[in-house]
């Protein structure tokens, strides 16, 4: 029996901590990998170089090797496929991470123009029982949309489906018993020439197993046609386990991290000095608020506004000088103040983002806001969060809060006609859809993710390299006041 364990989207959560609450959590790569059976083939589907305070600290301070690389090597990682966030800091940081891995780097649609990453389109692995396993991998095509030209210098991301098809065709000449495709992407019904999640297309190519990633959701093993499909969540809380034996049915399941289990001795060699420095730094008081910046609950904040979202938007406006700002909150409710620590701030704004300033008009903004207004449905006469934003994964971060405008949603109306009031100063943007102004928003939203493709019609005025987390930290160099509430309402 050939054992395969697959993780993805660990975001450098290596230790059993969420960096927010005290006590050990059932998460962290060292905890999870300690349950992997000896002799197994271990693979990871990317997104390590962004997301946790640990990797943020390592990148900011130039610490090498990355703790994640040390943990992967200690676990016996055999295969690594980069994820979209692994490109966030450019070629050199990606290269320094990959060069620290003992694993094969596979990504059939990653074109390495500098030739320093050691990337292969596929690799044949022989399991302990002699089973021949062909592994290939591809990365979401949307890297080309998200990432700046500077970060992709020396790298091209080709069409994922075509690259996977060619890799399967060539790899079959190695006479594998099973074929496995790793995809840093997931599933979705998306329009447009470039699609973020193409799992359904990839499942139709004829691989025996498709291991997906990127969407931070757990997808229990199931068949799409003749292909076994799985996804293992994020932050090293779960892993996919696939068992293959020629002539027998495939077996698979999801395993959970259990922090009560002892760590494998191989992890004893990983120094925890950096982790201790990170945990200590998170306790540092960085400033104060004259109250509490609230995100009380997802529905309450979306319906009635959030002073935390207003604060994010005010920081973006002050930095960029734009007329309007759009910002989102994240999946887990979080509040700040009156005393603010670095850990508290990074919990409230957990991901690295940069900003763009666009010139758009009232028509573009209204259509974008219609996507936000689709966050709601009505059940029993009361507003509820639409399943469009919760299934197959929670995407509360795709509901945007706006600043610099006055607006009203009527969520009793059909989707696409819910924005019933929209003013920028004295200008009624519903009556003057061609009126132009500037908006600041994070780079992912500006590229159209989350259903906001209309923003791609805007003119890019400026791209900023500063990390939003750093801008927020800087804002606490003086006491922060609770912002005045945005003039908006929701009726039904």
Description:
By secondary structure, the chain is α/β, with parallel strands linked by helices. It folds into two domains: 2-278, Purple Acid Phosphatase, chain A, domain 2, CATH 3.60.21; 285-491, 5'-nucleotidase,  domain 2 (Alpha-Beta Complex). 23% of the residues lie in helices and 27% in strands. Strand 3, helix 4 (90-99) and strand 4 form a beta-alpha-beta unit.
Write the layout of secondary structure elements.
Elements: E1 2-7, H1 29-33, E2 41-44, H2 53-60, H3 67-75, E3 77-80, H4 90-99, E4 104-106, E5 110-112, E6 119-120, E7 122-126, E8 132-139, H5 143-146, E9 155-157, H6 160-171, E10 178-184, H7 199-203, E11 209-212, E12 218-224, E13 227-232, E14 238-244, E15 251-256, H8 273-282, E16 285-288, H9 298-304, H10 307-320, E17 324-328, E18 339-341, H11 342-348, E19 355-361, H12 362-373, E20 376-379, E21 382-385, E22 400-403, E23 406-410, E24 419-424, E25 427-428, E26 436-442, H13 443-446, E27 459-463, H14 468-475, E28 488-491
Parallel strand pairs: 1-2, 2-3, 3-4, 4-6, 8-10, 10-11, 11-13, 17-26, 23-28
Antiparallel strand pairs: 1-14, 5-9, 7-8, 12-13, 14-15, 16-18, 17-22, 19-26, 19-27, 20-21, 23-24, 24-25
